UniProtKB/TrEMBL annotation:
Protein name per the record: ABC transporter domain-containing protein
Chief localization: membrane
UniProt keyword annotation of Cell membrane present: no
Any one Gene Ontology molecular-function term assigned to this protein's record: ABC-type oligopeptide transporter activity
A UniProt-annotated Pfam family: ABC_tran
Any one cellular-component term (Gene Ontology): plasma membrane
Start and end residues of each ABC transmembrane type-1 domain: 1-55
Entry keywords, A to Z: Membrane, Transmembrane, Transmembrane helix
Membrane topology, record value: Multi-pass membrane protein
PROSITE patterns hit by this protein: ABC_TM1F, ABC_TRANSPORTER_1, ABC_TRANSPORTER_2
Originating species: Dubosiella newyorkensis
Localization (cell): Cell membrane
Ranges for domain ABC transporter: 84-300
Length: 300
């Protein structure tokens, strides 16, 4: 930035001198400045492309490894879990910048609230738990005494864990498919009740194709809060033993925040993890608080 400003000042200075000496016209100086500006834009695009490329390459390597793992190595398929143990689990994206260092046990029939300032690694911790960085963390993650590294991660995420992401993801398909992709048919009665309680039932029925309306990740039919509600309901009715909600309240209105907490308090036989900066007043007394921080700051 400083270099580009200095270069521009330099061009102006030299250009000014040349114009004064009648060796350059103002028109030519403007053309030179235009070329200089497009050159800067191109350099910027190249730098951005370089960054995007590196990040895409890392994701591609992870994906390749995971596909290779599931095809080549014999992995254990686990469809249910009672207890998840973290033994000195730490992770860093950049060398010597440890996000957290944590030891704890998560058990069924408990609700855990994960807190910590922005950027402390809460979402990363959830990704870790779901097996996204399975060869990159330190420590041990045990699912009922089986090491995560030995488990078939794809199956684990298909059957055992359901996550409501911080940026709710809607895939290309109908509203119905988006709601029911992780649940069995018998949960349809619950689904109707949840849609009514969250104030979505009438909204969906007012659409031309109702529950068969096509939506996508780029959808513009639904508001941010409505998208978040779909992701929450999808997770609430899912069959997995572990339900994770990453900032589920961020786009919800007051009434829906209460509905969410009431629904959470009804859940039985599951490990529930909620990442939130808000005080969950309605379920406060049943919550185990976890603060995510590097070991020296850890207050668990
Ligand atoms: N793929 C990545 N590569 C490098 N650094 C990353 C990557 N993803 C996240 N980070 C960095 O890791 C840190 C933790 O990110 P994370 O999203 O886990 O934080 P968070 O606690 O969920 O924050 P928030 O409360 O804002 O949601 C941040 O500083 C972020 O910039
Ligand atoms: Mg986050």
């Amino acid at each position: 930035m400083i270099i580009s400003v200095l270069t521009q000042v330099f061009i102006f200075y030299i250009g000014g001198l040349l114009i004064l000496n009648k060796k350059l016209s103002i028109g030519i100086l403007i053309i030179i400045l235009n070329y200089y500006s497009s050159l800067l834009d191109s350099i910027q695009i190249l730098i951005e492309f370089g960054k995007e490329y590196l990040s895409a390459e890392a994701s591609y390597d992870r994906l390749k490894k995971s596909v290779k793992d599931s095809f080549l190595r014999k992995k254990i398929t686990k469809k249910s879990v009672k207890k998840i143990e973290f033994q000195n689990v730490s992770f860093e994206y950049e060398k010597n910048h440890k996000l957290f260092d944590i030891s704890m046990t998560l058990e069924k029939n408990r609700i855990y609230q994960l807190s910590g300032n922005n950027g402390k690694g809460k979402s990363t911790f959830i990704f870790l738990m779901c097996g996204l960085f399975k060869d990159e963390y330190h420590g041990v993650i045990l699912y009922d005494s089986l090491e995560q590294k030995e488990l078939n991660i794809e199956k684990m995420n298909e059957y055992m864990i359901s996550i409501c992401e911080q940026d709710p993801y809607l895939f290309d398909g109908t509203i119905n498919e988006n709601l029911c992709c992780k649940t069995k048919k018998e949960k349809r009665a619950d689904l109707r009740r949840l849609l009514i309680d969250f104030g979505l039932f009438d909204k969906i029925n007012s659409l031309d194709n109702k529950f068969e309306t096509q939506i996508s990740s780029l959808n513009t039919i639904l508001s941010g809060g409505e998208k978040q509600k779909i992701a929450i309901i999808r997770t609430l009715i899912s069959d997995g033993d572990v339900l994770i909600f990453d900032e589920p309240l961020s786009a919800l209105d007051k009434k829906s925040k209460i509905v969410f907490q009431e629904e959470i308090s009804k859940i039985k036989d599951k490990i529930v993890i909620i990442i939130s900066h808000e005080e969950l007043k309605k379920i406060k007394k049943n919550i185990v608080l976890i603060k995510l921080a590097p070991k020296e700051e850890n207050e668990i």
